[in-house]
């Protein structure tokens, strides 16, 4: 169940989206998986959220001095202990945003 007021709060607070994206770079699999799932819910909630996510990712990665989508690309490039679920979530997020 989605709480509309809560989602509207997230939509209006780009720092929260940036924070969720930075969690995708965590070394803990469960944190990464949960962050990816939440970002997917955010993007699927409304079509207008995809550009917000792109802006948040660009901003977060620019602050860290990385290329855009660095955290997601790290998941896709990982060769040791590949977690197929993480790969699926990362690719789904990229496809939903349409980059």
TrEMBL record:
Keywords, sorted A to Z: Actin-binding
Limits of the GBD/FH3 domain: 1-99
GO BP terms: cardiac myofibril assembly; cortical actin cytoskeleton organization; sarcomere organization
InterPro entries according to UniProt: ARM-like (IPR011989), ARM-type_fold (IPR016024), FH3_FHOD1-3-like (IPR056771), GBD/FH3_dom (IPR014768)
Domain of life where this protein originates: Eukaryota
Record's keyword annotation contains Membrane: no
Keyword Repeat: no
Pfam families: FH3_FHOD1-3
GO molecular function, one term: actin filament binding
GO cellular component: cytoplasm; cytoskeleton
PANTHER family documented for this protein: FH1_FH2 DOMAIN-CONTAINING PROTEIN 3 (PTHR45920:SF3), FORMIN HOMOLOGY 2 DOMAIN CONTAINING, ISOFORM I (PTHR45920)
Protein name as it appears in the record: GBD/FH3 domain-containing protein
Lineage, top ranks: Eukaryota, Metazoa, Chordata, Craniata, Vertebrata
């Amino acid at each position: 169940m989605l709480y509309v007021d809560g989602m509207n709060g997230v939509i209006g607070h780009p720092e929260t989206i940036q924070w969720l994206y930075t969690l995708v770079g965590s070394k803990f699999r469960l944190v990464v998986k949960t962050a990816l799932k939440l970002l997917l819910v955010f993007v699927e909630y409304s079509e207008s959220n995809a550009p917000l996510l792109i802006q948040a990712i660009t901003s977060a990665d620019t602050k860290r001095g990385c290329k855009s989508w660095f955290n997601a690309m790290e998941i896709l490039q990982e060769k040791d202990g590949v977690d197929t679920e993480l790969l699926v979530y990362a690719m789904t997020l990229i496809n939903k945003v349409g980059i």
